Amino acid sequence: MSSPSLPLPLVDEELIHSRIQAVRAQIPEQVEIMAVSKGYSVNHIRAAYRAGIRHFGESRVQEAAVKQAQLQDLTDIVWHLIGHLQTNKVKPALKQFAWIDSVDSLRLAKLIDQKAGELHLTPKLCLQVKLAPDPNKFGWLVPDLLQSLPQLNQLLQVEIVGLMTILPLGLSSEAALELFRKLAELAESIRQSGYERLQLRTLSMGMSDDYLLAVAAGSNLIRLGRALFANAERR
């Protein structure tokens, strides 16, 4: 006998809406807001959806599956996988997510391409780049990414659309801005390198604490969790 599901928390929808409006007032119109909904309920997601958000980021395949099953009526949500993807989870991830934003190795990219072909899917991928030493983060080192470009350009079942980065904690504003600019410069350099399948128009960088710096450096996809949802549950 299955255990009863816990009741969903009520959320302060007006608070979430006002936070989204405040962020939009600070950024250019072309910058997309991804609501990072990992750890938050479907009621948080619905509130953000009603405020116009369509891109949502989850870190775990299983947690996302539970929410997606309850949100099937919201047919135009774009789901992003933003957490580290283990190779044994590639197939279920492809069935659940239109975007995989955390592709951190050539091996993983090739496996996604293979499995996507088997499933007749064409996922969008961002390549996760590690711009500074950080033992807690996954990602390509820049020299390794540059070496992998010819093979990435040969992957035909996926659309490699951009770069993503997560900065180490504790950086100064100046250091963070410099790293964000490095990612923008890297994307531009790759676009100029002649790889027709690596146009990399999406720059996914910037989170709740540093998204304004990221936008100043050229980000057009910011990932916001706490900035939208923190303490928004009704007591």
Helices, strands, pairings?
Blueprint: H1 13-26, E1 32-36, H2 42-50, E2 55-58, H3 61-70, E3 78-81, H4 90-96, E4 99-103, H5 106-119, E5 124-128, H6 142-152, E6 159-164, H7 173-191, E7 202-204, H8 211-217, E8 221-224, H9 226-229
Parallel strand pairs: 1-2, 1-8, 2-3, 3-4, 4-5, 5-6, 6-7
Uncertain runs: none
Give the C-level CATH assignment: Alpha Beta
Mean pLDDT: 94
Tell me the strand percentage band: 15-25%
Q: What gap, in angstroms, lies between the N and C termini?
A: 31 Å
Describe the biggest sheet? 8 strands, parallel
Keywords:
235 residues; alpha/beta; TIM Barrel; 8-stranded parallel beta sheet; 9 helices; 40% helix; globular
Describe the protein in words.
With 235 residues, the chain is of the alpha/beta class. The chain has a single domain (13-229), classed as TIM Barrel (Alpha-Beta Barrel), CATH 3.20.20. It contains nine helices and eight strands. The protein has helices spanning 13-26, 42-50, 61-70, 90-96, 106-119, 142-152, 173-191, 211-217, 226-229; strands at residues 32-36, 55-58, 78-81, 99-103, 124-128, 159-164, 202-204, 221-224. An eight-stranded parallel beta sheet has the order 7-6-5-4-3-2-1-8. Helix 1 packs across helix 2 (42-50) and helix 7 runs parallel beside helix 8 (211-217). The longest helix is centred in the C-terminal third of the chain and has 19 residues, at 173-191. The model has no long low-confidence stretch (mean pLDDT 94).
